[in-house]
Amino acid sequence: MKNPNRIFLSLLVMMLSTVTVFAQEQKDEKGIDEKIDDAFGWATGDYVSGVFYQIPFGSVQDDMTIDLDVFDRLTVLDAGDPDAIPTYNSDDGIQYELIQDSLIVSSISLPGEQVAEELTFTTPNNKIIINGGVFKIAKADVSFGDKVEVTAYAPFTRIYWVLFPLILGAVFFTVYFKFINFSGIWRAIQVVRGKYEDIEKHGAEMLYGEDGIANGVDINKVDSLEDHLDEVSDEITIDGDIKDTIRDESSDGEVTHFQALTAALSATVGLGNIAGVAIAVSVGGAGATFWMIVAGFLGMASKFVECTLGVKYRDVGPDGTIYGGPMYYLTKGLKSMGLAGLGKVLAVLFAIMCIGGSFGGGNMFQANQAAQMVENITGGADSFMYGYRWVFGLLMAIFVGIVIIGGIKSIAKVTDKIVPFMVVIYVGAAVWVIIARYDMIGNALMQIIDGAFSPEGVAGGAIGVLVQGFRRAAFSNEAGVGSASIAHSAVRTKYPASEGLVALLEPFIDTVVVCTMTAVVLIITGNVNPENAGLADADAILLTSNAFASVISWFPYVLTLAVVLFAFSTMISWSYYGYQAWAYLFGRTSRTEYTYKILFCIFVVIGSAASLGNVIGFSDAMIFSMMVPNMIGIVLLAPKVKKEMTKYMNAIKLKREAID
Q1: Could you count the other beta carbons within 10 Å of the beta carbon of residue 250?
Q2: Which helix (H) or strand (E) holds 533?
Q3: β partners of residue 159
Q4: 420 and 259 in contact (C-beta within 8 Å)?
């Protein structure tokens, strides 16, 4: 195809123009986005509920006497509203409503901040209709002073089933690899700094083996590698430049360790760190921060495994382009173990779910939240953007389209500048707030520790806090989901384990550093409040913004910029993830490539303008459904990773001994 990029941009402009017309019509026809969202929810609701099903854990019960004659205590909050419902909340946590001449007991509080889900009446009453933890009785059937004896039941807490394989897998990898998530941190930093770039590029044996041409010299400290090789050998030649890579290299790959790390970080460091943490500490209290940190450390082991496999089983195309990720290590890795059929099925399932996740959580959700933040900071309902968020989406789609036509090389060049910049800004502001409120640091740390093990007012007690912390960490850093291995597989190295070590830094930065900073800011500014537990992500972002604004009045403007950059970097990275899955299923042709990329850009505009509650619920479910086939595969392939780690450590040892 001649000038494919020019053709892509032309098609992109045409398609976006169509979407723009649709968006303008949408403004005149109110509610069509809500209708689409409702229809989508009806079609996918059962699937989403299944993925995010919460397993009941333990139980609480309470025997109580409930007054029925409470009509003189019912009040209407808005006397001017003819449809207002009379309500009454008793001191012992029982909520009453009067609807169409029926008294409804709509909520019964139990110890441990739980709400009754099942009721048993000591004395049967055929006039009472029970529905789970709710019951109703006709007003005419209630006599003066009537009471009923009830035993109310509820689970002690609920745990998302998707957390079990993520947590158990992470614990298994932590033990199996002898706590690599702690012992490997310093080694990972050295790899990113390029200390072992020579052996990763040329191989340890060639440089430092018995007949190695380095002659005991650390090649990383030589001014000109080519000149040094010419001096010591006439037989060593450097392979030609791989097409469209950043610099000449002799090892397969397209990007540096640092660029692969930032490309993957850009897909995980984002709105979850800003909005999600606010929800976690609102629901689970300050103690959720402790369990987020624990989950972050455990997730480092999972990232190490999946990203090592991503490099080991990647494919290199005729032009030097790298293809990698769970689709390939599930197929090729399990085939090497005699499980070809299982590997193929798991790979296809992963690819389908990855495409859905790339359009939803990796695209529409990001665009939607960024547009909301910009609209809010520019005046909300009075903003010039109000009713025209599709314009923001159109601009974002154009920028995204320009970047993603260049592939991982183009994406890496953008993310290795954006990610460090926005992380430094965000963490710097957090440090500023913490220093300004330094007198509160000790109290905040005590709240975190005490709240982790002896929480007050948190549903499910310590286990409930643990669930909230692990849930937010898992949803933020995506360790075990497999997505990051797609970006990491494009790195330049001859040793897969070297990139696995780099990847383990990702949950550390995303969760242990950024999420913890957000949580501490919320705690010391007094924004950890159970009343905020029901906040949507968009409102939770505003909560975090207000926490920063209490110390840095102008920071909401900076945070808005950060949110836009977070969203942009997440979108371009997820476009790469989604395209790799798309190409695995439909082949690598110019037609399939530009079909996916045009669709991706269209979804940016739709995401900015639409109401996306159910759409995002489905896309999030797709992302975490990726975890199931991925986790099965990486547990089975763990011995392969151990061999790669041993190989890499032996290479480092060989270099050290040769230099010494």
Answers
A1: 18
A2: none
A3: 55
A4: no
